[in-house]
Amino acid sequence: MEELIRDNREKNEFLVHRSVFTDKEMLARERAEIFNKCWLFIGHETEVPEKGDYKRKKVGGRNLLLVHSQDGEIRALYNTCPHRGALVARENEGNSRVFRCFYHAWSFKNDGQLNGMPGKDGFPDDFNCDGEKDMKAVNRLESYRGFIFVNFDDQAISLDDYLGDAKEYIDLAADQSETGLEVLGGVQEYSVRANWKLLAENSVDLYHGMPTHKTYFDIKQAQDPGLKRVKLEGRGKDLGNGHAVMEYVAPWGRPVAQWTPIWSEDLKQDMEKMKEKLVERFGEERADRIANYNRNIIIFPNLVINDIMAITARTFYPSSPGYMEVSGYSLAPIGEDEEHRMARNNNFLEFLGPGGFATPDDNEALELCQEAYNNNEEVQWNDISKGMVRGEENAMATDELQMRSFWRQYKVRIEESMKKEVAQP
Amino acid sequence: MTVVALTRQNVVDFLYKEAKLLDEWKLKEWAALFTDDGTYKVPPIGKPEASPTESLFYVHDNRSRLQERAERLLKKEAHVEYPHSTTLRNYHNILVSGVESDVITVECNFTTHRTKREVLDTFVGKHKYEIVQQNGELAIKSKKVILNLDSLRPHGKISLIL
Ligand code: FES
Ligand SMILES: [Fe+2]
Questions:
Q1: Quick one: pLDDT at residue B95?
Q2: Shortest alpha-carbon distance between residue A192 and chain B (Å)
Q3: CA-based nearest distance B72→chain A, Å
């Protein structure tokens, strides 16, 4: 087997072969071993709060329909007609008790059950007695604190076991609200002309923070004359199963609850109160983590939850080695005060998203990597060794342990595939 | 303060001037077209009337944020636009209403092409402006950009000022 990842702990060297970003066969293997077997984020419970609510979702290359069925259950239906295949739901979202395929007008209840079709006399009496003609649902759908995941592998371990130590970090975000988090309207659907794993890396990479986002930190310094030096300090941590986190302090405001000078005095007082409330609920130490520390979490393979100047979740999927589709969400406490919400959203947009002052520069960095992988024939390896010399248990947030955690899991899964001649599930 | 009688053509010329400033990367001059309380917004795709507290916009700039946006894009460290992309903006179907009132409202279609590293992206949609007279000149009180796209694919970003 050709070696793709060199993890040399003696030499403190970690290398990734650049073909993993450009090779079509590798993408086929990733689909078979990773996207068909791992838990993939599909959305948040608050996107379909009422019975009948549905939203179309692309997950793991599939066209799915996240639906809150009449029986109260949330399902992920494959959005394809059991008759001859047409896409059934064509609106991106809505509320409906039935879905009707327009092609030959078969109709389905919102739990997927076939409800009726024209020309019934042309079919046997026991047609669909086995449910084969119902819209099929993804067999495995589980959720954690409102975050819903699907898995296309019926034999997969439970979501709870899969998330493992990452749950603690999802909790730290979710615990910011006593009423729970909700997804804001307007999920940002964008793309990057780069390999999907570059975004997984970038999202837990604090090392690039200063050089790539200097213009953002310049603005922060101008807004806060008291800010002498931008400090990005903290720890990196492997959470197992390919998940990882960096937890650190940063000079931006946090809506819950670290005030920043562009916000009003009223907000300052509110935030002090919020902090006190957190101390009551969780004690001093945990309250301090929730309010004053930032966390970028990667949930293997393709979910990032960033609890930073706002809370964003992003998920991404490759349609080719050099192109990924990204969905970016914003999450905020249900029932958040208007002024707080506005401060949060302005904070979000200053840094994050396709129109922010930082995310487009990340996009550019990723695209430049991808473009320069044209040189792969002669220049073959990426270096992801930063911090190994300190020992992995001492990793700083600006080290590359988070990325190594991702790659170590990737290696395990891809090596499984390499034993097979071609990619196969 | 003198208020000059305006014609539709004055307003149209003003918009063309705005587009030209942006295409020439004269972004500080662009920002200077705005009133002190001027705003620049890009609401979510498909939800032009969304509320900025309930929905995630792409851009929701007040006057100081749009100034920061313009100045940031001129820096060498605004990597996504360094070297600057080449752009071309066309405004069409310009509808001007209330030329005689204090606040003139304008709606137009736009096509903005951007090319960089031999990749051409095209943004299409509608601009909605509120325009006022200030010290004998026209000024933008608000600019809202309604994208008529399905998503930001394959563009991936709105690094430009639209
Ligand atoms: S394909 Fe849907 S009814 Fe025929
Ligand atoms: Fe970044």
A1: 98
A2: 5
A3: 6
The pLDDT value recorded for residue A210 is: 94
pLDDT at A340 (0 to 100): 97
**Test site for ligand 1: of A106, A114, A115, A123, most ligand atoms within 8 A of the Cβ:** A106
pLDDT for the residue numbered B8:
96
Does the C-beta of A281 come closer than 6 Å to ligand 1?
A: no
Q: What atom in ligand 1 is closest to the CA of residue A104?
A: 3
Average pLDDT estimate for B101-127: 98
Global confidence as pTM = 0.96
pLDDT of amino acid B3: 58
Task: Give the whole-angstrom CA distance, residue A271 versus residue B59.
Answer: 25
Which residues of chain A register pLDDT less than 50? none
For the stretch A143-189, pLDDT in tens is: 999 999 999 999 999 999 999 999 999 999 999 999 999 999 999 99
pLDDT tens readout for residues B46-69: 999 999 999 999 999 999 999 999
* Nearest CA, atom 3, ligand 1: A104
From chain B, pick out residues whose CB is under 8 angstroms from the CB of A187. Answer: 56
Q: Name the residue facing A188 among B56, B68, B119 (closest C-beta).
A: B56
Q: Do A215 and B77 touch (CB under 8 A)?
A: yes
Nearest to A361 among B42, B57, B80 (CB): B80
**A267 backbone dihedrals φ, ψ, rounded to 5°:** -65, -35
